[in-house]
Design the sequence.
């Protein structure tokens, strides 16, 4: 009899352990450094809490590996529904932490249900894709999928957690990609987002991009209408963003969005820009080798805000330098490419979509988080998967990984036609 | 629209997606390269200025002693009460206010002000707390979270000498000095010598402030040492100074000057050491260790008496008859008169018809020696009629008049010696009558008491001119051993010794037979000259110069008492008592002391 774990993908587990380990080391530095005595007691115990969460995650992962694929498929919609309900519950009964009403308290444990909802959403979408019949129209499928993503997304917006909501929105093009949407349509979805970003950084570049993109799309499809559509959509986004920045949004909101373009400017330096200035100073001063474990002046002096959560990357960049921060990026790249491979290996829409959803969620988090810490993107407070302090996020991200691993390990049990066929 | 997610299609998509992932991570990596490898030095600087705090380690300021080792200036601890608003419990407000003797509202205001500056850093809320009060606070410090104290130092003046103009004072560095001295390690709030020796010898007295570099957090709180103290600098204490001043002499002179305006300078003729230097009115240096109100400040600076003004080195006065030995020496040296040649004094000089150049008496035929002894104006008018004004200027400048003395004193005037260029500019068409009054120390002439004393010392030392100075020895920074700084050698003036001797003898006769015959120190031969100088303030200034003992002078004096009349009545007795004090170590003539204490300068004319 072949071992049950014959299909277990060890590289993924090793990558997970490496990332979680680096995160734990960085959190230790922020909580047990030479300046630890100045920290509130609650912050000082963050390290132990995170270590405990890692233990919980490990247990959960082993558990997840033993569960059969049938369980995941059968439970997918139920878990999705439970996620949505928990988001509603958090809105009704939840407590507000850092302005976001996305927390549920179960005994001594506090859970950020918006994090966990990501898992439910990915499972729900995967089940939708798996249950798709040849007779289902493409449009109807796409619309159902988008609705299923937007429902928890909107609830998260209502909880006043725009960062997490952005992850749900960002998930849509990724899932559409894996559902086989033609590239021109995908480009039509992605280009406006990029144009919106450019219009924040440099408006003329955004306008130029809109024109070039239209021409490119025309060339790609040979269809002039696609070209006009491309110009139209991107230009409209540029217009909306510009109007929002100059007309609609409050000055403090505009400052929050714009500050990353020049964080040390006088008008930003004492507001949101302060975070970015300090984060850049931390990462930049790390140099090639870093200042050493618990030797980072920015970290130990607590100049980096939210340094164990949203800005953990700055801590790594300062104390371990380019070697440390670069290693994190390489590990992430390896993990994501590996997960894409695992997804493809399963040859089943459910497994593929779970893997795709996981990769999409990680990718959005990584881009937004590291982009924020290095000031190429506006400040949006979402954690860096596996590294940032925070039990709910760690649990959610590990659960996704564990499910992909489990499905992949049991991939022979997945019907080539899907479970229900 | 949505294609079949068959295996071929999905594996192609997988490759596309993997490429996209690699591209995205390459962009992030590129940003890291830019931040950490290319621009790293810029951010390193930024993080250093952020997180590093330099704490100055105080260097004890050097002690200042008199020539006999009497301590004139040293330091005493000063205490400041510090409060960290974030950690202070407002319930303790009443108790703290009571302990440090502040009104509650006042304390509250100070705390609010400190909180505005920083919630997390200790701010001084009360400076110059006396030790007994601090001790009471210390007993309760355990139960007063957020309250601490800091020991600093302030200057202390333990002797009975005031010597305000000599010593100068220490205050927080002025902005204009800070702009210049930032590179020398000065920071805002640092103490710096502002006048006198404290300023001139600032570098030696200050020593080197040390620094410790500490890591501070975002709230400014001290966290740990930076790089384990690798960049720290130890402080080096200031160097002790031994001055040339004689504390007893200085104290006597100061007490004799009570109620008067004027100056006295005593020099050692053999070295130029300043034995005493008094300028009255003066001020209390202790006052400068406390806060000074703007009103008081204005009074010190611009009040009618101008206490901060150093009359010994800054007042430009006409020397009056004390100038006559100078003219006698020039006349002899220039050959316009021989030692035996006589000139007839009818009580006036005939130039100008006898009404302009008047003498006090009809002296009859006088030679140069008699003229000095009897202070005959006519004779010296005649001498100046014969001496070319440029010759006059050359010799007087050789004695240090009309030039700044490069000495240890900051505030110093050049003085005014006229020559033909000067007269052509100020009095076009000037004639011999213009310069004749220079012969009796009047006219377009300005000398400082210090210059006058130096010239007296040069006569006393038979023509050797030394640079007056205040610092005798400086302690070596390492061993603490006192060492003499380099001094320029004395120079011999170009008056023949025989001519100087003739004038010296004439000056002894002044003390024995002439206008100074009451002013000698009992039992000690001396030379001197009285002077009565006209001025624009009212009553004449009383001026007196003197050196003693006659053969080997150990002290040379110039004393000026403003608006006190004849030189023999005010300046003379003070100089005589000072010489006695210095030469014998005591003052025997009680009556003269009492007489001097009673004497006052005429009040200054009140401005209409």
Sequence:
């Amino acid at each position: 009899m072949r071992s049950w774990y014959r299909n277990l993908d060890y590289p993924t587990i090793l990558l997970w352990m490496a990332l979680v380990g680096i995160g734990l080391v960085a959190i230790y530095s922020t909580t047990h450094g030479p300046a630890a005595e100045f920290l509130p007691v609650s912050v000082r115990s963050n390290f132990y809490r995170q270590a405990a969460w890692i233990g919980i995650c490990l247990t959960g992962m082993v558990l997840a590996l033993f569960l059969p694929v049938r369980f995941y498929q059968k439970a997918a919609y139920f878990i999705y529904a439970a996620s949505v309900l928990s988001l509603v519950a958090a809105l009704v009964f939840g407590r507000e932490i850092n302005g976001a009403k996305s927390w549920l308290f179960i005994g001594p444990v506090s859970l950020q249900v918006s994090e966990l909802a990501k898992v439910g959403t990915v499972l729900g979408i995967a089940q939708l894709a798996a249950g798709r019949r040849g007779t289902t129209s493409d449009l109807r499928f796409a619309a159902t999928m988008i609705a299923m993503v937007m429902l928890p997304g909107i609830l998260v917006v209502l909880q006043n957690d725009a960062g997490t909501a952005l992850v749900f929105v960002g998930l849509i093009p990724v899932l559409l990609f894996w559902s086989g949407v033609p590239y021109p349509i995908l480009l039509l979805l992605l280009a406006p987002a990029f144009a919106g970003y450019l219009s924040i950084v440099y408006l003329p570049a955004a306008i130029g991009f809109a024109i070039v993109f239209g021409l490119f799309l025309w060339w790609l499809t040979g269809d002039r209408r696609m070209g006009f559509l491309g110009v139209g959509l991107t230009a409209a986004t540029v217009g909306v963003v510009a109007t929002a920045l100059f007309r609609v949004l409050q000055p403090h909101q505009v400052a929050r969005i714009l500050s990353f373009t020049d964080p040390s400017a006088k008008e930003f330096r004492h507001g949101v820009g302060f975070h970015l200035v300090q984060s850049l100073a931390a990462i930049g001063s790390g140099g090639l080798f870093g200042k050493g474990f618990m030797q980072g002046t920015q970290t130990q002096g607590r100049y980096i805000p939210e340094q164990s959560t949203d800005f953990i990357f700055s801590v790594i960049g300062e104390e371990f330098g380019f070697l440390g921060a670069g290693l994190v990026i390489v590990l992430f790249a390896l993990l994501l490419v590996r997960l894409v491979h695992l997804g493809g290996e399963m040859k089943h829409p459910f497994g593929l979509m779970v893997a795709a959803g996981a990769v999409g969620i990680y990718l959005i988090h990584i881009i937004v988080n590291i982009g924020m810490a290095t000031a190429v993107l506006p400040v949006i407070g979402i954690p860096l998967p596996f590294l940032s302090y925070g039990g709910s996020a760690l649990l959610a991200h590990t659960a996704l990984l564990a499910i992909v691993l489990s499905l992949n390990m049991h991939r022979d049990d997945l019907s080539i036609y899907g479970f229900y066929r | 629209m949505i294609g079949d997610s068959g295996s071929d299609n999905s594996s192609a998509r997988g490759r596309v997606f993997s490429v996209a992932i690699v591209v995205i991570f390459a962009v992030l990596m590129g940003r890291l390269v830019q931040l950490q490898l290319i621009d790293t030095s810029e951010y390193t600087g930024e993080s250093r200025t952020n997180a590093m705090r330099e704490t100055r380690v105080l260097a004890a300021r050097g002690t200042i002693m008199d020539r006999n080792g009497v301590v004139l200036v040293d330091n005493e601890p000063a205490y400041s009460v510090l409060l960290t608003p974030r950690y202070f419990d407002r319930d303790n407000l009443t108790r703290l206010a009571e302990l440090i003797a502040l009104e509650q509202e006042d304390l509250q205001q100070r705390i609010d002000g400190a909180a505005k500056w920083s919630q997390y850093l200790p701010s001084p809320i009360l400076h110059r707390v006396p030790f007994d009060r601090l001790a009471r606070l210390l007993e309760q410090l355990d139960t007063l979270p957020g309250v601490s104290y800091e020991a600093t130092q302030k200057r202390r003046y333990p002797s009975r000498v005031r010597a305000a103009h000599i010593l100068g004072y220490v205050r927080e560095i002025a902005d204009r000095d800070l702009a210049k001295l930032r590179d020398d390690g000065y920071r805002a709030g640092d103490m710096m010598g502002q006048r006198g020796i404290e300023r001139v010898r600032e570098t030696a007295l200050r020593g080197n402030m040390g620094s410790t570099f500490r890591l501070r957090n975002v709230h400014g709180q001290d966290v740990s040492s930076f790089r384990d103290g690798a960049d720290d600098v130890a402080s080096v204490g200031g160097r002790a100074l031994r001055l040339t001043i004689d504390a007893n002499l200085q104290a006597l002179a100061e007490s004799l000057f009570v109620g008067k305006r004027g100056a006295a300078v005593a020099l050692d003729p053999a070295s130029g050491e300043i034995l005493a230097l008094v300028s009255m009115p003066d001020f209390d240096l202790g006052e400068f260790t406390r806060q000074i109100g703007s009103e008081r400040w204005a009074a010190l600076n611009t009040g009618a008496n101008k206490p901060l003004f150093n009359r010994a080195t800054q007042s430009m006065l006409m020397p009056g008859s004390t100038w006559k030995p100078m003219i006698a020496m020039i006349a002899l040296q220039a050959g316009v008169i021989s030692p035996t040649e006589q000139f007839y004094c009818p009580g006036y000089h005939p130039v100008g018809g006898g009404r302009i150049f008047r003498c006090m008496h009809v002296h009859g035929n006088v030679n140069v020696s008699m003229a000095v002894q009897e202070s005959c104006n006519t004779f010296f008018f005649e001498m100046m009629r014969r001496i070319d004004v440029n010759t006059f200027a050359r010799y007087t400048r050789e004695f240090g008049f009309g030039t700044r003395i490069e000495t240890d004193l900051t505030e110093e005037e050049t003085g005014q010696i006229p020559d033909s260029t000067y007269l052509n500019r100020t009095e076009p068409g000037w004639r011999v009558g213009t310069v004749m009054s220079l012969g009796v120390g009047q006219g377009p002439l300005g000398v400082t008491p210090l210059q006058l004393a130096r010239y007296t010392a040069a006569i006393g030392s038979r023509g050797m001119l030394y640079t007056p100075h205040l610092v005798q020895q400086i302690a070596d920074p390492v061993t603490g051993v006192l060492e003499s700084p380099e001094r320029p050698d004395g120079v011999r003036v170009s008056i023949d010794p025989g001519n100087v001797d003739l004038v010296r003898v004439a000056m002894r006769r002044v003390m024995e037979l002439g206008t100074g015959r009451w002013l000698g120190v009992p039992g000690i031969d001396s030379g001197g000259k009285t002077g009565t100088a006209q001025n624009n303030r009212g009553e004449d200034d009383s001026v007196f110069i003197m050196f003693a003992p006659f053969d080997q002078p150990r002290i040379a004096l110039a004393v000026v008492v403003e608006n006190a009349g004849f030189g023999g009545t005010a300046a003379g007795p003070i100089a005589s008592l000072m010489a006695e004090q210095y030469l014998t170590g005591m003052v025997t003539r009680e009556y003269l002391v009492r007489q001097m204490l009673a004497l006052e300068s005429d009040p200054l004319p009140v401005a209409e």
Q: What stands out?
A: Residues 1-7 of chain B have pLDDT under 50 and may be disordered.
